[in-house]
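Quiz preparation item.
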């Protein structure tokens, strides 16, 4: 993926690009400083530096891909991941740091993920989202994702107390 400059709704510019090995300290900073609202939609416990190291080590650009958003100060403010399950299917996930939410960065990152998925031959892309995360659900459906299945809270997917949906799109 070639780096792409995107303009946020605030006018600020960020660069979307593939993750690099030297991004690890900035990824640790982003994940370990996520606020309560972001964590509420992700999981019930905070990220540790060692977890982020393990996540970063999994990126091999064959099965696991990562796109980051870097601001003008070199800070990573979002990450999108794509995990290939087969030649034609993959799962995605993304997180935008609290300080960059509601600025259209999530939409730009999702476009980059969809472009990457198409480039590597993915035909079906799935993702999971809390039913409480109305903003993310709106963006996903706006881009053509359809809800395939809803998991009730008692099914305890992703350790969530609220329901989770599985979304998919055919590319």
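Solution:
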């Amino acid at each position: 993926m070639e780096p792409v400059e995107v303009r946020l709704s605030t006018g600020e510019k960020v660069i979307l690009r593939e993750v690099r090995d030297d991004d690890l300290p900035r990824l640790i900073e982003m994940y370990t400083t996520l606020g309560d609202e972001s964590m509420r939609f992700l999981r019930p416990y905070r990220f540790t530096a060692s977890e982020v190291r393990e996540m970063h080590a999994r990126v091999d650009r064959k099965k696991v891909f990562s796109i980051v958003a870097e601001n003008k100060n070199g800070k990573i403010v979002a990450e999108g991941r794509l995990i290939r399950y087969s030649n034609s299917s993959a799962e995605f996930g993304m997180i935008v740091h609290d300080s960059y939410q509601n600025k259209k960065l999530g939409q730009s990152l999702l476009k980059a993920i969809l472009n990457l998925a198409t480039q590597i031959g993915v035909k079906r892309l799935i993702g999971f989202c809390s039913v409480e995360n109305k903003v993310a659900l709106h963006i996903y459906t706006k881009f053509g994702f359809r809800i395939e299945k809803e998991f009730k809270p008692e099914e305890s997917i992703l350790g969530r107390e609220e329901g989770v949906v599985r979304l998919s799109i055919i590319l």
